[in-house]
Amino acid sequence: EDQVTQSPEALRLQEGESSSLNCSYTVSGLRGLFWYRQDPGKGPEFLFTLYSAGEEKEKERLKATLTKKESFLHITAPKPEDSATYLCAVQVGSNYKLTFGKGTLLTVNP
Amino acid sequence: EAEVAQSPRYKITEKSQAVAFWCDPISGHATLYWYRQILGQGPELLVQFQDESVVDDSQLPKDRFSAERLKGVDSTLKIQPAELGDSAMYLCASSLAGQGGNEQFFGPGTRLTVL
Questions:
Q1: Do B4 and A43 touch (CB under 8 A)?
Q2: Do B48 and A95 touch (CB under 8 A)?
Q3: Residues spanned by the domain of B19
Q4: Cβ-proximal residues to A24 (8 Å cutoff; 6+ apart), any chain
Q5: Which residues in chain B are contacts of A93 at CB distance < 8 A?
Q6: CB pair distance less than 8 Å for A98 and B43
Q7: Pick from B102, B86, B107: nearest CA to B22
Q8: Nearest CB to B55 within list A95, A100, A101
Q9: How confident is the model over A23-60, as pLDDT tens digits?
Q10: Which of A9, A58, A62, B52 has most Cβ atoms within 10 angstroms of its Cβ?
Q11: Residue B63 contacts residue B82 (beta carbons within 8 Å)
Q12: Which residues of chain B have pLDDT under 70?
């Protein structure tokens, strides 16, 4: 059974304090790994897709990396507006279905 | 900017009543997904359509849930009768899966509360 585990469950940072979120996965035949941001009461917002080990993608203060067992979402010099839940999901097989982790709730204090 | 539309945004109902949710995907997206998200959890797939055909409904509680996408564009998810445990966020997403794009784009969701 495909498993996606995100850690920590919650992370509180001071503005400017860089850190990383982890997404570890156990799947057969990874097609892609996805990162989403979700604000309270809203739908997930697409951030990145990673397809192969060693791949990296960046967007503003966020950088996502992928190994054969896990992905990291690095947040550099975060701002309060980066506060949200960050969801990781894996896509396996041929039907494009996403299996999500439970998410990491990030709070950035000014 | 193209977006996935959902309505209503909020729905409060009593148990044993029927409820229905509507989704209009991004224009041109042949693949449409319905997810359920319980507070504090990640979304879980209920049903996936490719055009008007169901591709995956293995996690859909078929005794009370039904979904349709008659013309291969917009879609409706229905629950009858609603139970207390159905309280959750119902999310619709669409993608170009099978047409060259894997990314799924989500709508704002419908928050269902069953009393």
A1: yes
A2: yes
A3: 5-114
A4: A4, A5, A6, A7, A69, A70
A5: none
A6: yes
A7: B107
A8: A95
A9: 999 988 888 999 999 999 999 999 999 999 999 999 99
A10: A62
A11: no
A12: 1, 98-101
In 3-state terms chain A splits into helix, strand, coil percentages (rounded to 5) of: 5, 60, 35
**Side-by-side strand order, sheet with A19-26:** A3-7, A19-26, A70-75, A62-66, A56-59
Domains of chain A (ranges, CATH numbers): 3-109 (2.60.40.10)
The whole-angstrom distance between A87's CA and the closest CA on chain B is 7
- Residues B62-82 pLDDT 10s: 999 999 998 889 999 999 999
Which among B31, B43, B103 has the least Cβ separation from residue A100? B43
Q: Do A98 and B98 touch (CB under 8 A)?
A: no
